[in-house]
Design goal:
Two copies of one chain form a homodimer.
Chain A (H helix, E strand, L loop, with lengths): L6 E6 L3 H9 L5 E7 L3 E3 L4 H5 L9 E3 H4 L6 E5 L2 E5 L4 E4 L2 E4 L2 E4 L3 E3 L17 H20 L3 H7 L1 E5 L3 H17 L13 E5 L11 H14 L2 E3 L4 E5 L2 E4 L2 E4 L2 E4 L3 E3 L1 H5 L10 E2 L5 E2 L2 E6 L4 E2 L13 H19 L17 E6 L2 E6 L2 E4 H15 L6 H13 L14 H4 L22
Parallel strand pairs in A: 1-2, 1-9, 2-5, 9-21, 11-12, 11-17, 12-13, 19-22
Antiparallel strand pairs in A: 3-4, 6-7, 7-8, 10-18, 14-15, 15-16, 20-21, 23-24, 24-25
Chain lengths: 447, 447
């Protein structure tokens, strides 16, 4: 009897891993249920463009139901997953118990404040649409506040933008904010010279883009400096407060501190009580399953899976997540169809290259041994991202937003929404000083 | 000495009235300062398209600084106006005193709950971007909740959408929500048949679109009913609570009640202590000035100015506001240049026609004596709105969003953002019953 009914596959999280797993199960004789707290899949690599007012949230987010509309074995549930019972095989979500035969946990990552959660209120991260629009509103409000401010120190604090962490998110955001200040809003203000705004990128490690090769790091560093971004390497942030940060004993005044120093796995993983690797990631077996639970998999940023040969873990980038998602879908498909041995060959990550953009016509690209920068890299970056965004809402809308934004140096999404963040206006004295390493886990990144 | 310095013109509010006044002062030898609580001018007639997930906020909002970038006599201040001293001639805003020689108050309107402010939490209005995105999130979340709900009464309440007030906002929103349920999301859900969603438009008066002629009302009513909207005329809402409304002694269960029953003038007007007309509007003289203060003007939804011949007040539509804005700018320009008699001819409103759209290929148009409906009216509506939105961000983005949305019956901005509105999920028993008239002041509307 039990054999005759369809296998129930539950996927938790619809980031790159969860979504690509669901789609790869298209022809599998199984009931696929995807649970996410949001009703949309977010193209996270472009979230910094929302924070810097170039794109609207809807340009980079698409309803999950819409993506899976024609996949008839897939259902979608909007809700927060409250718990997982690996033994009894159910997930509790939105107040209901959802039983499964196969479980794919793809809950992603959250910002890592390295034990300083209290810094979050002053230095928001950039993991979701709400945070990105908050950062956008703060940035834009700061230019407004500077225009009205009589006190020079206060004005400088409004015109100083500090990004902590020089992974791809930090580098791209620093470049985009500098361009916003220099090219986009400069002519909008009468008193303030926004071109003098300082953008400071702070990195605890010795180079920017630590996940890339040293030549790309050097190239990106030169591009950032050419753009006017102040890059501080080997500098640890020891304190974040309402009016700035403390770094290497120096206090830098700023009402715009953005946290891009790293991520850790979603707390959902830790809640399972399984052995954790670096960054709170769950240690999985080579087939991405949880030890002792061949029917339960963890993929993406929440999984810790070192390469047996090199010891190097699968990186926390979207390519890692989506490749794991497709791999696990293949395993499940084979087993549901009664094919054995699908797991014999464990997951193997294929590095398809990396890229990061620093600004208009500035980027770095690594494709195998081919490393290059400049305009060619930027065009490659544009081409890839426009292609990937096809089917994402409306390529014409995104493309025309970008042409508008890049060619005319205007940005269409410069809206300050939500309430005024009164809290961040009140400077709070720094308390105890303690070091924060900024290179535990690299920020999630599209390769 | 005083004669040699430039006249200081302060404009409060950057809706249609304030913005068109500022632009009309382009060549005037004066310092123009425009103060608004938002950093953008909002094209309010299309806000219902944000609420119904067809457009993104940035598609219909543009930074004020960006609009006035090349107008060198204009400055912009982001801030809430806290008070006005008509005697000493200053405005207090963002903690500062701003002196003026000429004042233009164009603060607009707020939703009118007719003494039932407590209904706002259950039935948000649609006056700003925050409210529109809140309504969008609630709508979309309701379909999700219906999909998970086992109790039929609860499911019905999630799939019932009640719009109170059948002015242009109510009519357009009702049509757009019905289309969303029937054409856009229907195939996204596996369990729920969203096409059975009820959209109920409640109007206290005897017809929809009371500001238009009776033939247009009849035409719009037929279009709404053809679309499947339930229209209840002569029906007064006597109670709004967490799980629905009470209308004519009947309780209608709904987790989506939207308030479009009317507006009243911004409370800023009342704070001046001047005689008020209907809807809290300030009674102004034929030159739009405040009695006793020829240097202070009120325009748009906040002003009450009856036509001396007909007694009919200037309607609370964007054409009224922008015509008043241009008129006052002409008066100020003349006086600043020492030309006398500019006020001799008071403001005269020119009715340029009205239109409202009910849905794809359904609309009504009135141009003088020419009244028509159907596809021709809808094409006229589209043509006008696309034209008006030119320069608004990016006509290509809006146009492609619309083509996408209308031709493919998909909507790209279906994002649920912000926190889950826990409050509206808890039904609250209706307390005392009291009548609400729904036709005090018509909602602001583009002609």
């Amino acid at each position: 009897m039990a054999e005759s009914k369809q296998a129930r596959v539950v996927i938790v999280g619809c980031g790159f891993g969860g979504l690509f797993a669901a789609r790869a199960l298209k022809s599998t004789p199984a009931d696929v249920l995807i649970i996410d707290r949001n009703n949309y899949h977010l193209f996270q690599p472009l979230l910094y463009q929302v924070a810097s007012a170039a794109l609207s949230p809807a340009d980079i987010a698409r309803p999950i139901r819409s993506i899976l509309r024609d996949q008839h074995n897939a259902r979608v549930m909007l809700g927060e997953v409250e718990g997982v019972d690996l033994k009894e095989r159910w997930v509790s979500a939105a107040g209901a118990r959802v039983p499964y035969d196969y479980l794919l946990l793809a809950p992603g990552a959250v910002d890592n404040y390295f034990g300083h959660e209290e810094w979050r209120q002053f230095a928001p991260g950039m993991k979701d649409v709400e945070e990105a629009t908050l950062i956008r509103s703060r940035l834009l409000r700061s230019f407004e506040a500077a225009e009205l401010e009589a006190d020079p120190a206060e004005r400088d604090a409004h015109l100083t933008f500090i990004i902590v962490g020089a992974g791809p998110t930090g580098v791209e955001l620093a470049g985009a904010i500098k361009e916003l200040a220099v090219d986009v809003v400069a002519r909008d203000f009468r008193v303030t010279d926004t071109r003098k705004a300082r953008v400071i990128l702070i990195e605890a490690g010795p180079r920017v883009l630590p996940a890339l090769h040293t030549d790309s790091s050097a190239r990106a560093l030169a591009q950032l400096r050419a753009l006017g971004v102040e890059v501080r390497l080997g500098a640890s942030v020891t304190q974040v407060f309402g009016g700035g940060v403390e770094v290497g004993g120096e206090r830098l005044g700023s009402y715009n501190v953005i946290w891009a120093a790293g991520v850790r796995a979603s707390p959902l993983g830790a809640a399972l009580g399984m052995p954790l690797g670096p960054g709170g990631r769950i240690k999985v077996l080579p087939d991405c399953s949880i030890p002792g639970h061949p029917e339960a998999f963890v993929i993406g940023d929440a999984a810790y899976l070192p390469n047996p040969a090199t010891g190097q873990p699968v990186p926390g980038v979207s390519q890692g997540a989506l490749q794991m998602g497709r791999y696990v879908a293949r395993v499940i498909d084979a087993e549901v169809r009664g094919v054995r041995g699908a797991r014999a060959q464990g997951f193997h990550y294929r590095d398809k290259g990396s890229m990061a953009t620093v600004g208009k016509s500035r980027a770095v690209v690594e494709l195998g041994r081919l490393h290059f920068g400049g305009l060619a890299a930027w065009l490659a970056w544009m081409a890839l991202h426009v292609t990937v965004l096809i089917g994402f809402r409306n390529r014409l809308a995104v493309l025309s937003s970008w042409i508008y934004s890049y060619v005319f140096f205007r940005r269409g999404s410069r809206l300050i929404t939500g309430l005024a963040p009164a809290a961040i206006r009140r400077p709070i004295a720094p308390a105890t000083s303690s070091a924060a390493s900024a290179a535990d886990a690299p920020p999630a990144r599209d390769g």
